[in-house]
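Hi F.,

I've been meaning to write this up properly since the lab meeting, where we talked about keeping a consistent format for the predictions we share between groups. The idea is simple: the sequence comes first, exactly as it goes in, then the structure tokens exactly as they come out, then a line or two of notes. No screenshots and no reformatting. I'm using this chain as the first example so we have something concrete to point to.
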Amino acid sequence: MQRLEVITRFLLALALSVFLFMSGISLPPIGALLLPFVAQPVLLFGVKYGIGHGLGVVLVATLLLALFGGAELSLLYGVFAILAGVLLGLVGRLRTVEYLVVSAAAAMFVWALGVARYFFGSWAALAGDFRAGLTQQFATATQMQEQLGFSKDSLELVKEKMPQLIDMTLQLLPGLLFLTFAIIALINILSLRRRFPERRNAWLAIENFRN
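Output, unedited:
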């Protein structure tokens, strides 16, 4: 009976994690709201039945995505697999929440950089693609402002400063990405804390999380 329960929960965690991931990348921008919770079914299963079982879920999910969706999907899912692995390994061992969040975010960030490097082939190609995308976005925004009747002087100033704005945005992107990963890690820690209230004191060295 115990084995049947574990298998059932394993399959449920696997299905939910893959569903949240596929919905998040297939239904932008609304679906992106689901991405922070991709690791949550794995974490809940891993906390209840053991780290090994939780890691088994992300391993099977990664293999399934690689087989049926291609290497790109499995590599993207790896960002959330890394999050699940780090939190399962460190929750309860690293009790300072700041260190826990930074550790998870750093692991996700490094993996994301590796995936980006794999997709684009070089850092120069990556930067060039982002620059082209930002240039297009700024141009579209400027056209919309023109249609809305913004003053020509302000529009000319924006066009003049556009290269500097793009450079500044590119410089901020790594920090914004790391911050995003930190928020995702924090969301998952808060969710785990809510689901397992009896383990709060053992997991985190803080009584009131709002502090």
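Notes:
Residues 2-203 form one domain.
Residues 79 and 110 are 9 Å apart (CA to CA).

If this format works for you, I'll send the rest the same way.

G.
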